[in-house]
Specification:
Blueprint (H helix, E strand, L loop, with lengths): L5 E3 L19 E4 L1 H14 L4 E5 L1 H6 L2 H11 L3 E4 L2 H9 L6 E3 L8 H6 L3 E4 L2 H14 L3 E6 L11 H11 L5 E7 L11 H19 L6 E3 L3 H6 L7 E2 L24 E6 L2 E5 L4 E2 L5 E2 L4 E6 L16 E4 L2 E4 L9 E4 L11 E8 L2 E3 L1 H8 L3 H6 L6 E4 L1
Parallel strand pairs: 1-21, 2-21, 3-4, 3-10, 4-5, 5-6, 6-7, 7-8, 8-9
Antiparallel strand pairs: 2-11, 11-19, 12-15, 13-14, 15-18, 16-17, 16-19, 19-20
Helix pairs in contact: 1-3, 7-8
């Protein structure tokens, strides 16, 4: 039986709502694997051929972690990055055997699960390191770990000044195999790299100390998508792209030299058309009232699908290649569109909420700008009840 989250479209299907199996609800997130391939190749090109740790946390930013991971590994990704132990376990249960780095918070009580599923956790506390070593010894295995260093993000991780002695201590723990060290930038997406430079100085200083002590750390990483695109100094031995894999740049302002292709389109079909006279309120709260005789389309998408309520009366969709406005408040399961000016519009017509039709395109960046957020949240917010179709 097919899992409800994903569906592989038959070869040759167009990237459109027509790709959705007719037996399913027509609302779907279409995942363009050719665009994903293009973006991965751009990562490799921009990083000078370095190894790639592909970040697939949060269901691969809403694109579906298992299918995306399989595709990226087929393209040559060396490691996968998740945030949670449960996310790593999901990949293992799907038969994915590649190295998986758990980049988020890890608790001592999760040590046995980490060892059992052969995951690579971050270590940044003695209690966590000892729990992992004990679990590894108990299960007769070694556990590979990376040390997390906080150079200025202010989240989990050791300050560089404490990391040297911590590393010297944990390399003596039986059952642990120290493979790597990482830090994370707070604002490498900005044009002004002054703070990123300070973070780099602290990180590089620590690595110099470790080199002098003869402590081998073959995997060293700091470069997120922003650094891959605009901070060559941070590339080290492996890069850690996330957002750029999915077709969006985190960089401040427009950059002409960034060649990325959005991977996800959010599509549906018109469920119902209603012609209304002037003066008729639409949706909850009557915040939209027709000013003329209008044609209102209802589509089966709402905030429970991740189409944000903040798009009420300001969002747009594309129907028959034309932009149309959201009419009234976005509901939990439905949204209304004013399609009065779309010639020949019919029930069943395809609607793009994210994606392209003809010469028009709506991106996650466009939605983020209207709702006061970022493209990451728009993509991650598309809920699990929206079918993912891979094309």
């Amino acid at each position: 039986m097919r899992a409800p989250f994903t569906e592989d479209a038959r070869p040759g299907r167009m990237l459109s709502a027509g790709s959705v199996p007719r037996s399913d609800r027509p609302t779907a997130a279409l995942i363009d694997l050719d665009a994903l391939s293009h973006n991965f190749r751009e990562v490799v090109r921009r990083s000078g051929g370095r190894k790639v740790l592909a970040v697939v946390k949060a269901q691969a930013y809403g694109h579906g972690a298992i299918r995306v991971s399989q595709h990226l590994l087929g393209l040559g990704a060396d490691m996968l990055g998740v945030a949670l132990v449960e996310e790593g376990r999901e990949l293992r249960k799907a038969g994915i055997g590649a190295p998986v780095l758990v980049m988020g918070a890890v608790y001592p009580e999760q040590a046995e699960a980490i060892v059992r599923w052969d995951l690579t956790p971050l270590v940044y506390s003695r209690a966590g390191a000892v729990a992992l070593a004990d679990a590894a010894m108990k299960m007769g295995k070694d556990v590979t770990v990376h040390v997390k260093v906080d150079t200025g993000m202010g989240r989990i991780g050791l300050p560089p000044e404490d990391a040297g002695s911590f590393i010297e201590e944990i390399v003596k723990l039986e059952g642990l195999r120290l493979q790597g060290i990482m830090t994370h930038f707070a604002d490498a997406d900005l044009r002004d790299k002054q703070f990123a430079e300070r973070q780099m100085q602290r990180f590089e200083g620590l690595m110099h100390v470790l080199d002098e002590k003869g402590i081998p750390l073959p995997v060293r990483h700091a470069a997120n998508s922003a650094a891959v695109l605009d901070y060559e100094r941070a590339l080290f031995t492996i890069v850690r792209p996330g957002l750029m894999l999915y077709g969006y740049s985190p960089l401040e302002g427009e950059r002409q030299d960034v060649d990325l292709r959005p991977v996800l389109s959010l599509v549906t079909r018109i469920a119902f058309l209603k012609r209304t006279p002037a003066g008729i309120p639409i949706s909850y709260g009557r915040t939209f009232v027709t000013k003329r005789e209008s044609l209102i389309a209802t589509i089966p998408v709402g905030y429970a699908d991740g189409y944000r309520r903040g798009l009420s009366n300001c969002g747009e969709a594309i129907v028959r290649g034309l932009r149309v406005p959201v009419a009234g408040r976005v509901c939990m399961d439905m949204t209304m569109l004013d399609v009065t000016d779309v010639p020949g519009v019919c029930e069943g017509d395809e609607v793009a909420l994210i994606g392209a039709q003809g010469s028009e395109r709506i991106t996650a960046d466009d939605i983020a700008a209207k709702t006061g957020t970022i493209s990451y949240e728009v993509l991650c917010g598309i809920s699990s009840r929206v079918l993912r179709v891979y094309i």
